[in-house]
């Protein structure tokens, strides 16, 4: 435990952890069940092309969410691109800038212009009031992102979409097994996209899915994800190869068997963080609505350097020195990345809440890889740093230039 600033690793003390603690370290279910499934698919020699494990996974996900259709795919970005094409979107689509870059790229890749909307500073989700201000004759759709697994304002977005005759998609990358007003996310809008990347609490190694209650749309999505094949030798439309492999589906089925265990571990870690980080000046922990189902997969703090001497970036640098690889989701915002910052150089002027949040948010490790003792040590570093912020900054300024207080680019997380 840190009791003096000389104990901090940034000043030469021993790191709090010998091994690096990552945000989004993969959860692994029952390894024996996974091995059995892999042996089975190898014995069958059916490795891809809508095999029995993919079909079983699609059925289980559809039943779990209460949707008619689930199309499993190789990753969530391709699933979103196919959904966009199946909906025949064009012109402009409104979405938040505070999201992973893939959400915007899925549009721009298809020559559709992303129109970045500001967020509600309390929920971190797209602000419906700002959405209405951005609608033009070129607008074809709205993409709502359920950030951190907390649903955006679905009722307001649905009302706007219906009133303005727009398509409504939901990027539910963070929100598998979460609910809105007692109804599972994935059942709203024209289509919802899930990502089952290894960094998600539920993973298929790499994968994703499009889910929908629209029969015609689901048929088009399924055609497009397999080259447009409608029969053994018949192609009826253009398509691509977005199929999920059998080994990925085997991992997904194994993960589903442990999903309650994963969520409970996340919830326990969240409760420990909430207790240990309570009442720290300048630091707040994002909370979850206990009335809804949640996967609790993100531990999100906001650092207000108006109230503490330690900035978010300095706190991150200190944590990294301790081998706690906290991440700046979703810094610096899509609008500040290429090609969007060149296309829209003044976008920051209309995104004040986004600009503020990308400089405050930090996510911390959780999942089955850590438990109460690890959470306690992480929180000890944070509490000590916040409590001795002036002393730490003074010490750093004595030995460094102010620019060195900002850590180098540490990369962006995979959504």
How would you describe the overall organization of this protein?
The chain is 36% helix and 15% strand. It is an alpha/beta fold and 415 residues long. The protein folds into two domains: 5-26 and 259-326 and 365-405, Aspartate Aminotransferase, domain 1 (Alpha-Beta Complex), CATH 3.90.1150; 31-257, Type I PLP-dependent aspartate aminotransferase-like (Major domain) (Aspartate Aminotransferase, domain 2). A seven-stranded mixed beta sheet has the order 2-10-9-6-5-3-4, with helices on both faces. Helix 4 (101-108) links the parallel strand 3 (92-96) and strand 4 (113-117). Helix 3 runs parallel beside helix 4 (101-108) and helix 9 (259-276) runs parallel beside helix 13 (372-387). It is globular and about 70 Å long.
How much of the sequence lies in strands comes to 5-15%
- Briefly, what CATH class of the largest domain? Alpha Beta
CATH fold descriptor of the largest domain: Aspartate Aminotransferase, domain 2
| Helix fraction bin | 25-40%
What structural class should be given to the helix and strand makeup? alpha/beta
* Continuous helix count: 14
Gross morphology: globular
Mean pLDDT: 95
Major sheet size, sense and barrel closure: 7 strands, mixed
Order of helices and strands: EHHEHEHEHEHEEEEEHEEHHEEHEHHEHH
Question: What is the CATH homologous superfamily assignment of the largest domain?
Answer: Type I PLP-dependent aspartate aminotransferase-like (Major domain)
Q: Quote the distance from N terminus to C terminus.
A: 32 Å
Structural domains: how many: 2
Number of strands: 16
Q: Give the name of the CATH architecture of the largest domain.
A: 3-Layer(aba) Sandwich
Query: Poorly predicted ranges (pLDDT <50, ≥5 residues)?
Result: 401-414
Sheet with the most strands: spatial strand order: 2-10-9-6-5-3-4
- Structural Rg: 22 Å
């Amino acid at each position: 435990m840190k009791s003096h600033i000389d104990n901090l690793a940034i000043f030469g003390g021993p790191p709090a952890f010998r091994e690096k603690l990552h945000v989004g370290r993969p959860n692994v279910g029952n390894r024996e069940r996974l091995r059995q499934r892999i042996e089975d698919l190898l014995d069958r020699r059916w490795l891809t092309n809508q095999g029995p494990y993919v079909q079983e996974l699609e059925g289980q996900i559809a039943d779990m969410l209460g949707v008619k259709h689930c199309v499993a795919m190789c990753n969530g970005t391709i699933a979103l691109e196919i959904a966009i094409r199946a909906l025949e979107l064009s012109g402009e689509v409104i979405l938040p800038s505070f999201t992973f870059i893939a959400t915007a790229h899925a549009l721009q890749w298809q020559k559709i212009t992303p129109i970045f909307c500001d967020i509600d500073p309390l929920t971190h989700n797209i602000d419906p009031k700002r959405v209405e201000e951005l609608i033009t004759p070129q607008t074809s759709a709205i993409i709502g992102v359920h950030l951190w697994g907390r649903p955006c304002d679905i009722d307001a977005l649905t009302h706007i979409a219906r009133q303005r005759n727009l398509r409504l998609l939901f990027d539910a990358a963070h929100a598998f097994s979460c609910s809105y007003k007692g109804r599972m996310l994935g059942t709203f809008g024209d289509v919802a996209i899930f990502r089952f990347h290894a960094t998600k609490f539920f993973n298929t190694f790499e994968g994703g899915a499009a889910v929908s209650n629209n029969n015609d749309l689901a048929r088009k999505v399924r055609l497009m994800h397999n080259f447009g094949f409608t029969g053994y030798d018949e192609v009826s439309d253009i398509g691509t190869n977005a199929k999920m492999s059998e080994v990925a589906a085997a991992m997904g089925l194994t993960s589903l068997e442990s999903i309650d265990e994963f969520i409970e571990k996340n919830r326990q870690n969240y409760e420990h963080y909430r207790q240990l980080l309570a009442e720290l000046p300048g630091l707040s922990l994002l909370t979850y609505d206990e009335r809804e189902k949640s996967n609790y997969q993100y531990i999100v703090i906001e650092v207000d350097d108006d109230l503490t001497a330690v900035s978010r970036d300095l706190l991150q640098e200190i944590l990294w020195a301790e081998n706690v690889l906290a991440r700046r989701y979703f810094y610096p915002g899509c609008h500040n990345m290429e090609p969007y910052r060149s296309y829209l150089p003044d976008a920051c002027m209309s995104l004040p809440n986004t600009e503020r949040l990308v400089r405050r948010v930090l996510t911390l490790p959780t999942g089955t890889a850590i438990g109460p003792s690890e959470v306690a040590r992480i929180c000890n570093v944070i509490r000590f740093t916040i409590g001795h912020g002036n002393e730490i900054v003074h010490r750093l300024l004595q030995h460094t230039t102010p620019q060195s207080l900002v850590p180098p680019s540490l990369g962006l997380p995979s959504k």
